[in-house]
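can u do me a favor
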């Protein structure tokens, strides 16, 4: 299965727009608690089916199972880190 953003091997990944600017207010995001995040039809929750065809990428290639396990380990450690306060 091919995905729209996936390029054949050897073909460079070039930005689609020179004027793409991240507009995320990172200070606001850092100050938010989980309770501040509201799920709406504009930002719905995802299901297992939504992720059933997902591909783990490491750089510009498909990641290995070992890389995926390391990624999960790091995510779990981050989620379970001690919180200040």
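np, heres the sequence
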């Amino acid at each position: 299965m091919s995905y729209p953003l996936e390029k054949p091997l050897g073909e460079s990944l070039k930005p689609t727009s020179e004027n793409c600017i991240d507009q995320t207010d990172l200070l606001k995001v850092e100050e938010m608690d989980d309770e501040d995040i509201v799920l709406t039809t504009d930002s719905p929750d995802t299901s297992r089916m939504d992720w059933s065809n997902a591909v783990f990428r490491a750089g510009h290639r498909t990641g290995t199972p070992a890389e995926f396990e390391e990624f999960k380990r790091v995510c779990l450690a981050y989620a379970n880190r001690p919180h200040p306060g």
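The mean pLDDT is 79. hope that helps!!
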